[in-house]
Design goal:
The protein is α/β, with parallel strands linked by helices. The protein is 42% helix and 13% strand. The chain has 38 helices and 33 strands. Helix 24 runs antiparallel to helix 28, helix 27 (695-709) packs across helix 28 (726-744) and helix 32 (853-867) runs antiparallel to helix 33 (880-900). The longest helix has 28 residues, at 594-621.
Length: 1091
């Protein structure tokens, strides 16, 4: 007997000496590794035969394992899968695996196995001794105990066993007993099953060419297998509801279906989801598919939307000819955001005092960013709080789907408040379901601090990548869990657009700057601006004129304690903000049209006159009727609301009326009269400008005429004109339409949302019918209005149709006024800039005021800075003015760009765009693949595929490696969202194209390279196989893997050093990543240069 310690004396060396040509080898062990074969290849080639028994069930389907008490779950046991995978190298043979030669070794091993070896497996749960016998006929040797037959067991690689002693017995009697025992087991069909054929098929998977798609899904399987285990039938769409047979589901494009499936999964898991797909990607239809799913499960659904979008939603749940989804019989209810605060009256036929707010299972909130503010007021409940208390917390458990094109602006509190709707204000409930280290509130606090620091950087350093680096893992984990956001670029790059069609080409925008009028006796823009900036609009600020001695009683009634100890929000501040809002509104209306400005000046003049009469009346008679304050009505005003409220409007005044006896009337009267003088003078100037004198009106008239005479797409004479104000829309309709009808015989229509739509067709068509006639192809006119022979070619509209409408028959969009928020312009353009447009190109036309852009923006800054009031939600680390200043500079840049090009929504976000950060598409991809193709658990690691390079899609020659870090303690500062899995894309020249922290771009590239390629690409495989001698010469790629791992360690080191100086928890000097041996290669995609 001899003791082999596997340190000074190695089992492998001893076997080499023992195995003689013609010997028979018999082994009973838990696993077999091709690297053990590679070490003893010369000796094993010379033997007569190998008989190998797997001592535990291996390569045996579960149903053949005799164990009555087990639960059927997967085709293979996990430990069994580990044993099977260790065939291609166990955990401790990583150094060998990372040489990437497993394919060549597997091929040689398979060839040898077919000639010399037979494998059988224990099919019962009964334990079996492990040993090896070398039978040379006249002598022999037995080695015992064995663990497995791997390079570690042979002593050539280091394992984790405390000791690895093996005894060698030469005694003939002893060896004969073991040989007899082995043969006895080998020949017992009750206990043993032959697995040679299965093993040969399995090993073929290592050296055959793999399809790129298979490797892509293997990559996803490794990364997201935890997600698959968490998923149960409860959180996936239930196919039995028949939602996939519905009309809406079958109208969706593949990316919309992916979105809908993801939303249902998130609603079931987290109770809430924000859908923030880019403009023009059909969020409404995606949401309708989700609604249909819940309706089929007999859930009650409420859609809450802004008033201007109500008609759009009502169109789909009524039995109307204009409803293309009438067959689906939607029965959700529609109410407006503002209805939350009304307690009487009706809304679309529903009596508001009888609405059972707590009984909705799903609430869909369109334009959910209108619920960003959660400020607390003493004397009333805001719209946000009412939604939370009445709809979401009361009654049945409510799921919340939010639709928003701009969920993140420059304050993360906006996003937090929207998310709070999903978790009913109880952030712990959501925190418990996330894989984050801290709770939701802390995640947002950190994100806001990171954003504030970023916004103070110089412009050239304020890049999207810089903010993505600054935000921590928890923030992405949170976003990924509750948002779905895809951009237009993402869809174009990563989906097959043949079924969808493409986006039209955007021509360079046309910019025009006509003056107010050609008349020399009317003042110009700058003079009007100068006069407006001196107007105090004192009529909207009665509180500012209360005598100091009387102020205390009003403060008690009015001022609001702000939640979170942020101080008091004073009524005077509210009024200052209202004054600024009104001044802004005046400027916007002047920019829009002379007519809109005139109408507003007239209202203001009447308002001031009435107020002065009231004061005169009080002085004369002493009757003090008090003065109602109108700020309350503006607490929830949408920034785009255009109506000027009358000061002292009884219907909206707050609970408190200001007594005229408590006011400094001389001062107030003086300021009111000064304002009135300026307003009257401006009004007199504006009265001079007739339509014939209106330079902008005459210009658009001629421009539309030119477009109809020389269309940019043959035969398309459609034009849509957008304006922010209904007054301007009516002015344009009165002045443009007769000419278009007379000169060209084309029909026109106007839709404003605030009054009944009109058209030159003469019939009383409603809003949806007119839009159908304007966009007959997009809105299925042949079904909806088959008997109407005419179409509408000129549509004049306000922002009531700037969202949720598909008008892509049109190719020409004119902004008659520039909206101060660039997002609105993009939303307007999104009506015609849509995927699947029939037009080759589309044109955007913008009318700017007749001043230089810098003057224009400086003016806006002056006005908007007046609007920055005390920030009620400040947590102490928001310096709002800083962020505002950063945002103004940013918006200035956007407006400048808008003169030159059409920009995407993602480019406008004044901070973090959450688009394209989510990994949900990949999870859903994997889920669907496994549904159709079964599990991937038993595939060996180290597989690869070869794809051709495609520089246009970012695929340059190189390798995308998927690795697993076995040192689980290491993911310091959570830089890697996928830990313990790491992805790196390295070019052939060693340049890192995407490092392991750029998870989303890496997965996108892998998806673009592999998805949909179900067969190996021979044109790419052949040059790779030639260059590597069929996988034998893998030195070049092994070096790249080495460099890829070093890049992970290097990025880690940089972040560690940063963390030493940031004052946050440092990651330096703890848990270093040891290096190459810590990473196991799971799979790789070779991007091969075309030969």
């Amino acid at each position: 007997m001899k003791l082999i310690d596997n340190i000074n004396e190695l089992l492998g060396d001893d076997l080499r000496r023992s195995i003689e040509p013609g010997a028979k080898l018999k082994i009973a062990a838990s696993c077999f590794s091709i690297y053990a074969f590679a070490e003893l290849k010369k000796q094993l080639e010379s033997i007569d035969s190998l008989e190998f028994i797997f001592t535990s069930p291996t390569f045996i389907p579960d149903d053949a394992i005799k164990d009555s008490g087990r639960k059927v779950r997967r085709e293979f046991h996990i430990p069994k899968a580990e044993r099977e995978r260790s065939f291609y190298g166990s955990d401790f043979e990583i150094q060998l695996k990372n040489k990437l030669t497993q394919r060549a070794i597997a091929r040689e091993c398979a060839d040898w196995m077919r000639r010399k070896a037979a494998f059988r497996s224990n099919r019962s749960k009964a334990p079996m001794q492990q040993f090896a016998c070398v039978d040379t006929g006249d002598s022999g040797a037995v080695y015992q105990p064995l663990h497995g037959f791997t390079a570690v067991d042979l002593g050539y690689q280091q394992g984790d066993a405390v000791s690895n002693f093996v005894n060698r017995f030469d005694d003939p009697a002893y060896t004969a007993n073991f040989l007899k025992l082995f043969d006895q087991i080998w020949d017992d069909p009750e206990k043993i099953e032959d697995v040679t054929e299965r093993l040969c098929d399995h090993i073929a998977s290592v050296y055959q060419e793999n399809s790129p798609e298979r490797i892509y899904f293997l990559m996803l399987y490794n990364i997201f297998s935890e997600f698959l285990e968490d998923i149960s039938e409860d959180v996936l769409p239930n196919d039995r509801t028949g939602y996939q047979d519905s009309l809406i589901w079958n109208k969706l494009y593949s990316f919309q279906r992916d979105g809908a499936t993801g939303i249902i999964n998130k609603l079931e898991t987290y109770n809430g989801c924000i859908l923030a797909d880019s403009v023009g990607l059909g969020k409404t239809f995606t949401a309708l598919a989700v609604i249909k799913y819940y309706e089929l499960r007999n859930r009650s659904v409420l859609v809450l939307c802004p008033k201007k979008l109500a008609d759009n939603w009502l169109n789909y749940n009524r039995n109307l000819t204009t409803n293309p989804l009438a067959k689906d019989r939607f029965n959700y209810e529609v109410l407006c955001h503002t209805d939350l605060q009304r307690t009487s009256g009706e809304s679309f036929g529903t009596r508001l005092d009888r609405v059972n707010w707590g009984n909705y299972d799903l609430v869909v909130i369109d334009e959910s960013h209108n619920f960003r503010n959660n400020d607390v007021f003493k004397d009333r409940e805001t719209r946000y709080q009412r939604l939370m208390s009445k709809v979401i917390c009361e009654g049945v458990k409510t799921k919340v789907l939010m639709l928003s094109a701009t969920p993140v602006n420059n304050r993360f509190t906006d996003l937090r408040n929207q998310l709070a709707l999903a978790y009913e204000g109880e952030s712990d409930a959501l925190s418990a379901k996330l894989r984050t280290e801290t709770d939701v509130e802390e995640v947002f606090r950190r994100a806001q601090a990171a954003f504030n620091a970023w916004s103070r950087l110089p412009a050239e350093e304020r890049t999207p990548n810089a903010i993505l680096d600054a935000l921590d893992f928890d923030f992405f984990e949170l976003l990924d869990s509750v948002t779905i956001a895809r951009s237009r670029k993402h869809i174009e790059q990563f989906y097959d657009t043949t079924e969808i069609g493409t986006f039209p080409e955007r021509l360079k925008p046309l910019a025009f700057n006509p003056p107010l009028t050609q008349r020399s006796d009317v003042i110009g823009f700058n003079d009007i601006y100068a006069q407006l900036s001196t107007v105090k609009l004192a009529v909207y600020a009665p509180v500012n004129y209360i005598l100091p001695s009387r102020l205390a009683k009003y403060e008690e009634l009015y001022d609001t304690e702000v939640a979170g100890g942020g101080g008091r929000l004073k009524q005077a501040d509210r009024e200052r903000s209202l004054q600024a809002l009104m001044t802004t509104n005046l400027l916007k209306r002047l920019e829009s049209s002379v007519e809109a400005f005139r109408i507003t000046l007239q209202k203001l003049q009447d308002n001031h006159t009435r107020t002065l009469e009231k004061i005169a009346n009080y002085k004369e008679t002493g009757r003090d009727l008090g003065f109602a304050d109108v700020t309350v009505a503006f607490e929830d005003a949408e920034p785009e609301d255009e109506e000027f409220l009358a000061a002292d409007d009884e219907s909206i005044g707050g609970k408190v009326r200001i007594s005229l006896a408590d006011m400094d009337l001389p001062s107030w009267e003086h300021d009111l009269e000064a304002d009135l003088g300026i307003i009257a003078a401006l009004l007199a100037e504006m009265q001079k400008v007739t339509p014939e004198d209106d330079a902008k009106l005459q210009h658009i008239k001629a421009h539309i005429n030119d477009k109809i005479n020389a269309p940019i797409n043959t035969g398309n004479s459609k034009v849509i004109v957008f304006t922010a104000f209904a007054d301007t829309a009516h002015y344009l309709y009165r002045n443009l339409v007769p000419g278009v009808l007379e000169a060209h015989g084309l029909h026109s229509a106007i839709v404003t949302g605030s009054d009944a739509p009109k058209s030159t067709l003469g019939r009383g068509y409603d809003f949806q019918s007119l839009l159908t006639l304007f966009a007959p192809r997009a809105k299925d006119k042949h079904h909806v209005l088959p008997d109407e022979p005419n179409e509408i070619d000129l549509l004049i509209a306000t922002d009531c149709i700037s969202e949720g409408q598909n008008l892509q028959d049109c190719d020409y969009l004119i902004n008659y006024d520039i909206h101060w928020n660039p997002v609105r312009i993009i939303q307007r353009f999104g009506r015609i800039d849509r995927i699947g447009s029939p037009n080759a190109s589309i044109q955007l036309v913008n009318y700017w005021p007749d001043i230089s852009l810098d003057e224009y923006i400086n003016l806006k800054e002056r006005v908007e800075n007046r609007m920055v009031i005390v920030d009620a939600t400040a947590t102490g680390d928001d310096n709002l003015l800083d962020t505002e200043a950063g945002e103004m500079a940013y918006r200035k840049e956007q407006l400048r760009r808008l003169q030159e090009e059409v920009i995407d929504m993602e480019d406008v976000k004044t901070g973090v765009s959450i688009t394209d950060l989510g990994l949900n598409d990949f999870r859903m991809d994997l889920l669907n693949y496994i549904k159709t193709h079964g599990e991937l658990a038993n595939l060996p690691s180290g597989l690869h595929a070869v794809v051709p390079a495609d520089p246009n899609r970012g695929l340059v020659p190189g390798v995308i490696f998927t690795m697993r870090n076995r040192n689980h303690a290491v993911n310091v500062q959570q830089q890697n969202r996928l830990h313990p899995f790491y992805l790196v894309y390295i070019a052939n020249d060693g340049e890192i194209i995407a490092n392991h922290t750029e998870v989303k771009p890496l997965l996108d590239l892998a998806r673009a390279a592999c998805r949909g390629r179900g067969d190996p690409i021979q044109a790419a495989c052949q040059p790779f196989n030639q260059a590597t001698d069929d996988g034998r010469q893998m030195g070049f790629y092994s070096d790249l893997l080495d460099q890829a791992i070093r890049s992970i360690v290097q990025v880690q080191d940089e972040k560690d050093l940063d963390s030493l100086f940031t004052g946050s928890r440092t990651s330096a000097l703890t848990n270093p990543i040891a290096g190459l041996d810590d990473f196991e290669l799971l799979s790789f995609v070779v991007v091969q240069e075309e030969q």
